[in-house]
Task: structure prediction
Amino acid sequence: MHYNFDEIISREGTGSIKYDLREKVFHNSKIMPLWVADMDFKTPDFIISALQKRLEHEILGYSVVPPAFYSSVVNWNRQRHHWEIKPEWISFSPGVVPALNLLVMAFTQPGDSIIVQPPVYFPFFSAVENHGRQLVTNPLRYENGRYSMDFADLESRIDSRTRMLILCSPHNPTGNVWTPEVLQRIGDICVRNKIILVSDEIHSDLIYAGFRHTPTACLSEEIARTTITCMSPSKTFNLAGLSTAYLVIPDAGLRQQYEKILDHVHVGSGNIFGFVAAVAAYNDGADWLGQLMDYLAGNLKFLREYLSKHIPLISLIPPEATYLIWLDCRRLGMSPDALRSFMIHEAGLGLNDGPQFGKEGEGFQRINIGCPRLVLHHALEKLSEAVRKYFQK
Result:
């Protein structure tokens, strides 16, 4: 079946964060929103059909995690990532961000240190600081337009209070797909220092041609015992509103400790439609995902060529994964506040502001290309015109 990713669908008035919170976030309800990490493509028809079929049973009472959910997760990860997961390793979470907060509460105490690697997805920061833990940063190294890990700096920041490292793999916002060698090294460091490695792998299905995602926990039994992997079909199949994610925790002791706090806050039951959608996505979604990645690759090519030809002062960090692209705007010569204001009020675009991802993000913006190409084209035209006018002043 051929899927149409060019169709433009209005999302205004549907409770969409991306569209309906523009006034609150940007103080401008007319900006083109290319920020929140969901896509403007239809949720696949086979998922909608599965949800409609479930609605034929007109009772939506309390439910449990169905066995089909576990088997779909096992099969998807075996086929997609060559990772053999046992069903009993899987625990529910209402989302990856809630999982990060629950894991911080489950495995650390106030005053403990937790390491993150900025520029990085900003809820990592709040998951640490909102619970009274000490945020320790191990910034990625940015050289020649590419990001890499600074292992010497990482090891220098580990001390007796360090309890956890939160890894973003693939990395948001830089788009890095970490190699097995890099993951092995970071896993060995965590094993050696008795640090729990929380690996956020929510973007693991969104990999461009020529690259391959490696689940951190599959590298060795030792690394698996200290690793908690956070995953979800939500980014892949545009299901974020159904609040359904899962953790893979091979170590029984860690899994029991996580599920204890999950039970204490009473969010472990999930929701009927989230499970129905996840099962349909993982059982029937391979062809749709292949076509999606082809379309996103076309959007990425269009973005790269447009910037090179029309806005050469802005360049992109070549992503290996995700539809979230990290734009280097430093050659515009603007302060962080001026750049944010320029994007909103001059270009009329709602992007993610670089400093949200840490001070290392100053001079950068994150753009979401998970949209019809005509929408992306229009946004780039607005940006090009704004840049032209700015330098004519």
Notes: The chain has a mean pLDDT of 97.
